[in-house]
Design a protein that fits this description.
7-stranded parallel sheet, 6-stranded parallel sheet, 17 helices, globular
Length: about 350
Amino acid sequence: MKILSIVGARPQFIKAAAVSRALRARHTEVLVHTGQHYDDAMSEVFFRELGIPSPDFNLGIGSGSHAEQIAQMLVPLERLILAERPDSVLVYGDTNTTLAGGLAAAKGNVPLTHVEAGLRSFERSMPEEVNRVVVDHLSALLLCPTRAAVENLQREGITAGVELVGDVMLDTARRFAETWPAGPVLEGFAVEPGRYYLATVHRAANADSPERLAAIVEAFESLPKPVIWPVHPRTAKELEAHGLSGAVAANGNIRAIAPLSYRQTSALLRSASALLTDSGGMQKEAYFFRIPCVTLREESEWVETVESGWNVLAGTDKDAIVTAATSFETPLAHPDFYGDGHAAERVVAALERHAGC
Ligand code: UD1
């Protein structure tokens, strides 16, 4: 079986680390990097740390508007898919890379496999929601991380080719994050377990809104413990553009730093007092490590983290953020919503069944 996998943004490298390994144990994988994320800190470091094979092709697309990114990816992706003639094209998650890969596969008449299918925020102004909905409706094989995702697809009339495989990010967390010692990383940042918060902000709705960004900064300033904040390049630009980077730099409670590697992130997350984030993947990683999560959005795709009490949706209201972070009541129960850490093997088994091998 020959699979052409398409990655491009940071969260996809973490997912590919699990799937590529399982796939290559028995089959041929052609790995394509669109280059949506391109800095060493946003891309190469993940390949090195997680042992992901070097991409066979890098399209070097880089930054741009949504239309620019998607349009520039489509032509070379179509060419590659037609030349390679894989049994399936595999895409991950909800980025512009996912959408471009999905469209190119559908137009090339090659079966499309979507890993992390069925996620919904029910917020169509969110670019990622549009990407997910379109890609799910183009996919032949829809591999869902959770039961809620399967049910979302059912409600949209998608039942054929849907399988619950578990979450491939848990596979990566189990294999790497849980086995790496956190101590040296914490020492490097001069912090002690439970005595700091970890924060990330990059969603367009937050990064591109001066009001929301300012409220987030104010909330971080008001927290009773230091906030370690690896700043996403998109957010760094917007902080600068909205005249907020000075406030961030001057505030003793906020430690704004460059984007971290997976190893550094997971080490800091595992010992944090709480995570404050608008990331999708990190809400789950907090759950894997039993760390309280305060989500800087009004909705979450990972509804089970919220319903179980491990994740509080605080939006960007300063008081709501501070209250959630300082009075978090950690639940006793911690169900296995995301499977057993062997999702990648199920992804490969589903691909084999689908390809008839
Ligand atoms: C993208 C995804 C989002 C995902 C996130 C993870 C879409 C629509 N969004 O958002 O789903 O959760 O990645 O990080 O696909 N930049 C750099 N260096 C880089 C990468 C980006 O400086 O290595 C800058 C670019 O100049 C750009 C900005 O960051 O202006 C945003 O990058 P972009 O690729 O548009 O998407 P993200 O905001 O990272």
